[in-house]
Amino acid sequence: MCAAAPWDFPFSALVPALKYGQQIALAPVLGRLLGRAVVGERLPDMIVPMPLSRQRLRARGFNHALEIGRALPARFVQRIVPTALVRHRDTAPQAGLDFVGRRANVCGAFRCTLPVADQDIVILDDVLTTGATMNEAAKVLMAAGASSVRGWVVARTLRD
User: Fold this and answer.
1) What band does 84 get if pLDDT is binned at 50, 70 and 90?
2) 3-class DSSP state for residue 150?
3) In sequence order, what E strands does the chain have?
């Protein structure tokens, strides 16, 4: 797991402004920050932005994880494959749920749609809180044959 910053100000304000406030101009800023954090990471075969359900994508108008990814260094951008994983079931927002609730909420929500056998895959997202969503997505990719799955996020909550 690679996180560019802790979930604290200003990220605790910037990420919600991007996701819920339609401030899409923040995506390149967050993407460049993440790009600096992953510059030394090994080059994956595939970068998969965390998918949104069709309903959420329609309501928001963009996938924030994909928009963040577009601002990564070019060697990473060319490996972004937004269609490799889909969220085929709309889920409730994770905010406000505890770990058990988050895990149950995303259970079975993802489906791998492209061949990923023997691929080193990075799942790209904005924030890692409990890891329930990232773990569920990784589980689906591993079951489809990925050789490894890791996560890159802009911000990560810190545990005591």
Assistant:
1) very high
2) strand
3) 2-6, 46-49, 85-87, 110-112, 120-128, 148-156
